Amino acid sequence: MESKLPDGIYDIAIVGGGVVGFAAAMYAGRFNLKTILFGDSLGGTIILTDVVENYPGFKRVTGLELAKALEEHAREYDVEIKEEKVAKVEGSGNCYRLWDESGGSYYSKAIIFATGTKVRKLGVPGEEEYANRGVHYCALCDGPIYKDKALAVVGGSDSAAKEALLLSQFGRKVYIIYRGENIRPEPINGERVARNPKIEVITQTNVKEIKGKDGKIAHLVLDKPYKGNNIFPVDAVFIEIGHLPLSDLAKGLGVKLNGKGEIIIDRESKTNIPGIFAAGDVVDTKFKQAITGVGEAVSACYSAYQYINTTELVCLVGDGAQNRNSKA
């Protein structure tokens, strides 16, 4: 049966407009739940990915294409989408109230946090000073401006390897600088890096400082010599050392986080707070991929659906008017 709720009251509010948020919205639509999705940057971080080859059903697809496909699927249903950032969330009885940055106010019986992450910065002198002037965090966004230049990628993950592979299409030379003994990409990307004559891997080395000249980056300062010199000239450096979970809104509601700041969920994407669910890169699962986040989003939506239909919930709105749904 289709949900019938007053204006401003929703069954589910989804915070996050990436592939995980849209997967949750699509399932909420299929469950005939009144749904609102908030996303200040629709598509999420995956749109910064050049090629996705590990999403089942798509042998090769760009991150933007994948994000658009999930968004279009969600829009097939009666889902309200707000291109707004949620500024504040509070509990309101056994209902929740959300405010967007424009001052709009909304009530929801359940919330799914799909807020994802933000880039982790290196935290060395010169990083902020030369941001967007040689210091970057997205090869797809900024790599093309460095045609035939010497480039560096800091990091040793699969993401770092993929950034280097993409940058090799533009630069004359790409260095991967990693503090560990060996980089740790997926095997297929490790093989691609090893075969690429433009890419060189420098391990057990840290970048200590980023130096510039005439308003742009000139060289990196390494903590150990490379070919006899700690001064390492490059035209640009791309930082790929991981991400930080965007979990502050959930934390403010009393949702439990782990030591990394990730939202702790169970196998059903439930948190410790009734009516609060989470999925994707913001949660504490170890293996973070678009496909695993989408799976968590589906579980979160089903758990929210069960919660809404088996729990007596009352939303007190404004002057005390209330909307009640009885147990199924």
Task: Please provide a written account of the structure.
This protein is α/β, with parallel strands linked by helices and 328 residues long. It has two domains: 9-119 and 243-325, FAD/NAD(P)-binding domain (3-Layer(bba) Sandwich), CATH 3.50.50; 135-239, FAD/NAD(P)-binding domain, CATH 3.50.50.60. Helix content is 23%, strand content 30%. It has seven helices and 19 strands. The protein has helices at residues 19-30, 63-75, 139-142, 158-167, 187-195, 248-252, 290-310, and strands spanning 9-15, 35-38, 79-82, 86-92, 95-100, 105-113, 117-119, 135-136, 150-154, 173-177, 199-202, 207-213, 216-226, 229-233, 236-239, 243-245, 276-278, 313-317, 321-325. Strands 1, 2, 3, 4, 5, 6 and 17 form a seven-stranded mixed beta sheet that branches. It has a five-stranded parallel beta sheet with strand order 8-15-9-10-11. It has a three-stranded antiparallel beta sheet with strand order 12-13-14, with no helix packed on it. Helix 5 (187-195) links the parallel strand 10 and strand 11. Helix 4 (158-167) packs parallel to helix 5. The termini are close together.
